[in-house]
Design goal:
The chain is α/β, with parallel strands linked by helices and 172 residues long. It has one domain: NAD(P)-binding Rossmann-like Domain (Rossmann fold, 3-Layer(aba) Sandwich), CATH 3.40.50. 38% of the residues lie in helices and 17% in strands. The protein has four helices and five strands. The chain has a five-stranded mixed β-sheet, sandwiched between helices. Helix 1 packs parallel to helix 2 (74-94). The N and C termini lie far apart (39 Å).
């Protein structure tokens, strides 16, 4: 969102990953995943700081797996954990400049990402069983949450992780 040459909203949702066990992962995989999932966000914020208007909202899409472990998701989960930590530090540093940083942590959404998982159908079924709304969250629900975090309705929210997962985290 640009207003008079300045940005007032920035949603970072780029992500990549490798679905392999730790024994199959290489430092090349590590560098590739962390370069897009963490480093690119850092670089973009540094470049865009002069363009951020007072009141700008930065929303970073993370993953539930930033705080829980899933087989064959090591580098993705670790990079999302690093992204959340970086975002909270940026929130503290940028808030005095009138720039808010928040994290949006979607639950399981039916996207092409599932196709890379070796046990796709089993994981989707188990996720739905643990979700009180008995379905995966939708892309529209995630987009609406990002819109909320970029709106004036959320001006008091800084450094927060908003979880949109249909209640999945409340069931063990």
């Amino acid at each position: 969102m640009v207003k008079y040459g300045q940005l007032n909203g920035f949603v970072y949702c780029a992500a990549t990953g490798v679905h392999r066990t730790v024994n199959e992962l290489t430092t090349r995989h590590f560098d590739w995943v962390f370069s897009l999932n963490v480093r690119a966000f850092f670089d973009l914020v540094k470049i865009l700081i002069p363009k951020f208007a007072k009141g700008t909202s930065i929303v970073v899409l993370s993953s539930m797996d930033a705080v829980r472990a899933v087989p064959a998701y090591t580098l993705i989960g670790a990079s999302k954990g690093a992204l959340e930590s970086l975002s909270k530090h940026l929130a503290v540093e940028l808030a005095p400049k009138g720039i808010r940083v928040n994290i949006l942590s979607p639950g399981s959404v039916l996207t092409d990402t599932w196709d890379a998982m070796p046990d796709r159908e089993k994981r989707i079924s188990e996720t739905i069983q643990r979700t009180p709304i008995e379905r995966l969250v939708t892309l529209d629900e995630i987009a609406l949450a990002a819109q909320y975090l970029c709106s004036d309705a959320s001006t008091g929210i800084v450094g927060h992780t908003l979880v949109v997962n249909g209640g999945n985290r409340i069931i063990g």
